[in-house]
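Tokens in:
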């Protein structure tokens, strides 16, 4: 934090040292990288939620089709017996 206070003093004085400018640039670049990583994790998390929802829907659809086929087969079987 001392460096940040020194930079604030430099700002009040109207001049920056090269060392402070380099530190600011490195800090900003690091923060951009942190933000980018967080955004990627969020995107991946959202993608996984959607994928899980799609999987649940596919499984429900498969169960529904199996039930339909079962009842259809039972209906056709009872129709042929009568």
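Residues out:
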């Amino acid at each position: 934090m001392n460096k940040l206070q020194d930079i604030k003093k430099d700002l009040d004085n109207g001049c920056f040292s090269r060392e402070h400018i380099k530190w600011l640039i490195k800090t900003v670049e690091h923060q951009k990288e942190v933000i980018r990583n967080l955004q990627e994790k969020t995107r991946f998390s959202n993608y996984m939620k959607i994928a899980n929802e799609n999987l649940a829907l596919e499984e429900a659809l498969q169960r529904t089709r199996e039930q339909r086929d079962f009842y259809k087969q039972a209906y056709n079987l009872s129709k042929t017996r009568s």
